[in-house]
Automatic annotation (TrEMBL):
Gene Ontology biological process: cobalamin biosynthetic process
Alphabetized GO MF terms: ATP binding; corrinoid adenosyltransferase activity
Involved pathway(s): Cofactor biosynthesis; adenosylcobalamin biosynthesis; adenosylcobalamin from cob(II)yrinate a,c-diamide: step 2/7
Pfam families linked to this entry: Cob_adeno_trans
NCBIfam families: PduO_Nterm
Protein name: Corrinoid adenosyltransferase
Organism: Alloalcanivorax xenomutans
Keyword ATP-binding attached: yes
Principal EC category: transferase
Amino acid sequence: MSSRKDEKTRINRVITRTGDDGHTGLADGSRVAKDHPRIEALGSLDELNSALGVLRSHPLDEDLDRLIENLQQWLFDIGGELAIPDTVTLTDAELVEIESQADLINAELPPLKEFVLPGGNADAAWCHHCRTVARRAERRLVTLAAEEEVNPVSLAILNRLGDLLFIMARLINLRAETPESQWIRREDR
């Protein structure tokens, strides 16, 4: 139980049986099919957030752990935007923050001569997995945006997030002194 008397209970019952007919409720009270593009986007965000949670369960450097926690918070914010249609939460400030973090991390990395194969250190490999889930979440949000209004900043954040996770994976490998495997052109193999 909460120690704060003024703290509101957000969820007190998980099993509601209201989704047994293939529909689910949004936070504004409306109901949509569970395979609606909005729910597909929400599900992909949830999957990404869970994958980032797995990454955070590994012993990461404090700066990366803190950054991933911020990313998880922003993913919940995007989810909130989707759960209440026509809501805008994220602004250019978060987009600028992701870009500046990406620039800081990228400055530590050697330039790439070829494409990187996902892998290396186990944490870096999982970070690459998170990147692919982020790209799917981005595609689901693009699908929804073709039908309904979506915060363009949230779309941009998911796009940048894929890039950020790529360079984070590279940094994890670098800090762990694990070599990156790079793609070798067919004619050179």
